[in-house]
Amino acid sequence: MAASRLPPTFVHGFHDLAAVQRMKYRPLGRTGMIVSIVSLGASPLGNVYRKTNDDEAIQVVRTAIKKGINYIDTAAWYGHGRSEEVLGKALEGIPREAYYLATKACRYRPEVDQMFDFSAERTLRSIDQSLERLKIDYVDLLQVHDPEFAPSLKMVCEETIPTLQKIKEMGKCRFIGLTGYPMENFVKMVEGTSVQVDTALTYCHYSMNDTTLLDYMQFFEKRGIGVMSASPLSMGLLSNRGPPKWHPATQEIKETCRKAAEYCQSQGTDLSKLAMYFSLAEPSIPTTLVGTASLTNLQANIDVVTGSSLSPKEQEVSDYVMENFFKPLKKKDWENLEVDEYWAKMKKLGKAPPTS
Ligand code: NAD
Question: Is the pTM of this model over 0.90?
Answer without folding.
Answer: yes
